Amino acid sequence: MTPRPQFDSEYIEGELQELGDRLHAEVAPFLIGGGAMAFRGLKDTTKDIDLVVTTEAEFDRLFAALGDQGYEEVSELDETYQQLGARLCVENDDGCRIDVFNRQVANKLIFSNGMQQRGEEYLTSGALSVRLTALEDIFLFKTVAKRPDDIDDMNTLVQTSLDFGAIEHEIAAQIELLEGKQFTTHIRESLDELYEQYEVQTPLESAIDEYYAQYMKTLEIRLVLSEDNPLSVDAIAEERDLHRDYVTEQLQQLEAYGYVEQTDAGFVDTGKRDAFNE
């Protein structure tokens, strides 16, 4: 397979400047990923320009302007890009690819109010005002995106003065937005890979380990349940050889997020899934 071309910050800036000239109404996207790292001098080149908008109207405006600029939708995406879950993926004749996300990124995280507040203004062109996503939030996105270069980028980001307290706070916010902790299993895997490849550990380890343990505990209970056959606390405890109080505690957590429901006959699984795709 022929490697995809790489683009430096000068090229990216030129594309964004032209995009702004073609917009007919204001759009204020956030630049994430390699493009934001390139503008900060942390990467020489990147294959993609990743933009996040927070409203459907802004998405529609970008879609129209990118078409006017000569970008065409990519019809066949490899598995990595399919998992990334961009709402729009377009490419120009140079092979530069622009991915546009509408609030949800990598099918796993929501571009939260906190992320928007941490972003900083960088480039204005016509009706376009591009803001750079904070390095802390880029690091978090990298932990769940699972693309080939993401672990390398995580290692680069760790060498900067990241505020890991802010990252931990954002993880807690994401748990509330997504109504679940399953996404923390992806963070755990990426942190393990970061250590395996670079022997780098972060202050996130203990918090992620705790979230991971909590998720696995509730999963252990949920796997016993079905949507059709209610089970009592005692029946679940006997099935898993667990203490009744422990089962009750896990059921309370699952019920709080709407994953299980208590009926007169016992507890059933609601069939609800975390607010992102596998």
TrEMBL record:
DUF6036 domain segment(s): 29-178
InterPro entries (UniProt xref): DUF6036, NT_sf, WH_DNA-bd_sf
Origin: domain of life: Archaea
The protein's name in its UniProt record: DUF6036 domain-containing protein
